[in-house]
Amino acid sequence: MTDNQVPSDILKKLAVIVGPQNLTTAREDLLCYSYDSTAQEYIPDAVIFPGSSQEISSILQLADASSIVVVPRGAGTGMTGGALPVKGGLVMVLTRLNRILEIDKYNQVAVVEPGVITGHLKEEAKKSGLFYPPDPSSFKFCTIGGNVAECAGGASAVKYGVTRDYTLGLEVVLPDGRILNTGVKTAKGVVGYDLTRLFVGSEGTLGILTKIILKLLPHPACRATFQVSTASMQQATSLVARILSSHQPCTLEFMDKTALHIVSTFLPNPLPTGTKALLLIEVDGDAQTVALQSDRLMKFLQAEPGLIGVQRATNEKEAEALWSARRSISPASFELKPHKINEDVVVPRTKIPDLVAFTELLSVELGITIFTFGHAGDGNIHVNIMLDRENSLEKENADIAKKRLFAEVLRLSGTLSGEHGVGITKADYLPLELDETALSVMRNLKKLFDPKNILNPGKIFPEQSSGKNN
Questions:
Q1: What gap in Å lies between CA 257 and CA 279, rounded to an integer?
Q2: Most buried among 44, 173, 235, 290, using CB within 10 Å?
Q3: Which one, of 378, 437, 337, lies nearest residue 155 by Cα?
Q4: Dihedral angle sign, alpha carbons of residues 390, 28, 457, 36
Q5: Domain count, the chain
């Protein structure tokens, strides 16, 4: 148990709110909600499964009155520890709130609860001829609430943007139990401060999302997928900015030779001999637009000297196989080492070659495996530092690699996180990117919404000298 242990009398009151079947303190259940994709583990004191915003309001009123820590959680797919109960307390799992409340075909709006699986929303929107663009690699099992809390992105961000660009409004339960409604269901709205944007990306530290209003788009009728094989990472990454200067792909991904090696069995066709990096490019739109874009892109690529191969997927099955390979990189990487530090840094597109070259040199210098892949179209590079934490030298060098990577990203005018958030894994590094004024304003916002610091404490901000989180 922790310093924030939930007293037995409070547990009884919580059971009345949600029903005893929706509250657990069983050790095996606590373990199931003690970790996320960081593979770090913090065991909570209890886990609760509310079924409505009113239940959440009652839970938070009780928690606020008793100063009990509450940690909201979706599917637990986060990469920075945002859903970990690092201070113990009560984990609030939102998967019961999993209804699509509305899909308005004519106003192109969806209203959903936070536990809706992102891929399920995409499928249901498509039935109405609509499109929800954000597509994190985990879209088949991550939730909309978690996507909003982290401002998730994905491969399509180069053309369509990220979660915040589609979040029109929210219903939020504040730490004291009050229910706040923000935003609109219309295309425009500028009444008052933009509180919606404040909650997007706040990682569950300011309030618990219970309803989300999302913008949808007409579903693209066609797409065309291209695989570009290059003889070096430098060639692949330097090509990115030139492609985007005259073309508008909906995705532009890259994989280095290590990433290609670990997913080679997923690829629909063998790679050309000598392939050291690959670009995965997709264009979408109506049939005529896709035909024109594809023709222009193919001519551009065929005129590029030194490319090993340019192939267009001949059918939907081939295209999906390429994307399956891309989405399999992260889980397949554990074939290399049992542990991983996965950083989703972002640099200006023209600086991608510099960053990738830096990681290659860093890997050699420190004697550890570092490989890269990710969303080259928007400069969001996933740098994977592989290690065995039982090996003290590897662990030490991996930590050095992370620090030097962050320093180089900022030197290149980049940012430390593009879509994974801050959580606990990047909190200590925030002062490298944010000045003291920015940090002070953010801390004060946290105090304004959550003066008792009961909601997801220990996240985003580095520990202050007093040893307390704010």
A1: 11
A2: 44
A3: 378
A4: positive
A5: 4
Whether residue 114 sits in one domain with residue 180 = yes
Q: Report residue 234 as tokens.
A: 């430098």
Q: Which two tokens stand for residue 200?
A: 């997007």
Return per-residue pLDDT of the chain as tens, 470 residues.
455 689 999 999 999 999 999 999 999 999 999 999 998 999 999 999 999 999 999 999 999 999 999 999 999 999 999 999 999 999 999 999 999 999 999 999 999 999 999 999 999 999 999 999 999 999 999 999 999 999 999 999 999 999 999 999 999 999 999 999 999 999 999 999 999 999 999 999 999 999 999 999 999 999 999 999 999 999 999 999 999 999 999 999 999 999 999 999 889 889 999 999 999 999 999 999 999 999 999 999 999 998 999 999 999 999 999 999 999 999 999 999 999 999 999 999 999 999 999 999 999 999 999 999 999 999 999 999 999 999 999 999 999 999 999 999 999 999 999 999 999 999 999 999 999 999 999 999 999 999 999 999 999 999 764 333 33
Domain span at residue 382 reads 336-411
Count of Cβ atoms closer than 10 Å to residue 5 Cβ: 14
CATH number at residue 342: 3.30.70.2740
Of 358, 388, 411, which one is at a domain's C-terminal end? 411
Closest CA to 354 of 305, 408, 304: 408
State the pTM of this model. Answer: 0.94
Q: Which of 446, 259, 56 is nearest to 464 (CA)?
A: 446
Among 411, 439, 460, give the residue marking a domain's end. 411
What CATH number does the domain containing 80 carry?
3.30.43.10
